[in-house]
Each structure stands twice: as structure tokens, then as C-alpha cells.
Design a protein that fits this description.
By secondary structure, this protein is of the alpha+beta class. The chain has a single domain, classed as 4-Layer Sandwich (Glutamine Phosphoribosylpyrophosphate, subunit 1, domain 1), CATH 3.60.20. Helix content is about 20%, strand content about 40%. The strands form four sheets. A five-stranded antiparallel sheet has the order 5-6-9-10-11. The C terminus is likely disordered.
Length: about 170
């Protein structure tokens, strides 16, 4: 089971994710599931994922490289987003694109579902926290519900992406 959790607190945002991955009974290892996108003084964004590792890491790779906007043909990147909501919608597009790249998954017994927590802060705007799941629709944390959590039982997947170097836990202010 994979867990990730994000909590909006008075002073900012806290996000955590485990690192365990399972591709069968005898293939258990670790993989970084909390990604940091940071430009000091401009933005801090974090993405925690649970679910199918190939889909989630495919989405992360698309976010790093940028996604083509189907309407304009322009390449969009997280660092170009003016608001956290715009960035959350870009994450949703990356999830949908990653699922499309996997192809027809209806005939397999592996679950390709993912859930992502996406949070951070752009400029002086207050921190925001979103849950993005397989339909790639963001759901926002609110003062009455400051916690988003995700758990996935089936994390069996294969991924050709190399793990990111380990980093400490991050918070935004």
C-alpha cells in the first residue's frame, strides 16, 4: 500500500509520501514518490503520488519536459503557471497524457489508477493543495478540510525512469 498526505497549516503546507513500491510478491523496493519543483523566490511546488508507478512517473517526466497545449501548440511547464490552479490543471493533463501513452489497459489485470497530491505556492499567493486522481480532476483542500490523503493498494507497475536523488521533506511558507 502506498500513502501520501498533504496538510495545509497556518504557516504553510506539509507533504509526505512513502517510498515503498511493489511489483509482485518477491519484488519490493523503494522509489521516490515526492517530487519538488522549485525556483527560490518565485515558486515551490510538490507532487506526491500513489498508484501505478509507470503512470505517475510518466506524468512527472511530462511535467519536467513540458506538455504541448493542444489549442496553441505552445509547450507549457509548471514554472510558467501563474496560479496553483493552472498548475494543478497541467498536472491533470500530464496524468491523462501518461495514461494515453500506456495505451489500452482494459485487457490487463494491473490497475493503472493513480492519485496525486499537488501543493505549493506561487509568489506571495497563499499555499494551495489539490488531490488529482485518475480522471485527472483537481479537488482543492479548504480551511474546513485542510488535509488531503491518498492510499493505493495496487502499486504493481514497471517504469523505465530512473529514481530521483533522495531529498529531505519540504514545507512551504
Amino acid at each position: 500500500m502506498t500513502y501520501c498526505c498533504g496538510i495545509l497549516v497556518r504557516e504553510g503546507l506539509v507533504m509526505i509520501a512513502d517510498t515503498r513500491t511493489n511489483a509482485g510478491l518477491d519484488n519490493i523496493s523503494t522509489f521516490r514518490k515526492l517530487q519538488l519543483f522549485e525556483d527560490p523566490g518565485r515558486h515551490v511546488m510538490m507532487l506526491a503520488s500513489s498508484g501505478n508507478l509507470s503512470v505517475s512517473q510518466g506524468a512527472v517526466n511530462l511535467l519536467v519536459e513540458g506538455l504541448e497545449d493542444p489549442a496553441s501548440g505552445r509547450i507549457e511547464r509548471l514554472e510558467d503557471a501563474q496560479t496553483m490552479l493552472q498548475a494543478a490543471h497541467l498536472v491533470g493533463r500530464a496524468v491523462r497524457r501518461s495514461l494515453a501513452l500506456v495505451g489500452d489497459v482494459a485487457e490487463t489485470s494491473v490497475s493503472f489508477d493513480v492519485a496525486m497530491l499537488f501543493g505549493g505556492q506561487i509568489g506571495a499567493a497563499p499555499p494551495r493543495l489539490f488531490m488529482i486522481y485518475t480522471p485527472a480532476t483537481p479537488s482543492s483542500a479548504r480551511p474546513t478540510r485542510p488535509i488531503c490523503k491518498s492510499a493505493s493498494i495496487n502499486t504493481a507497475s514497471r517504469s523505465s525512469t530512473a529514481p530521483s536523488p533522495m531529498r529531505p521533506t519540504y514545507t512551504t511558507r
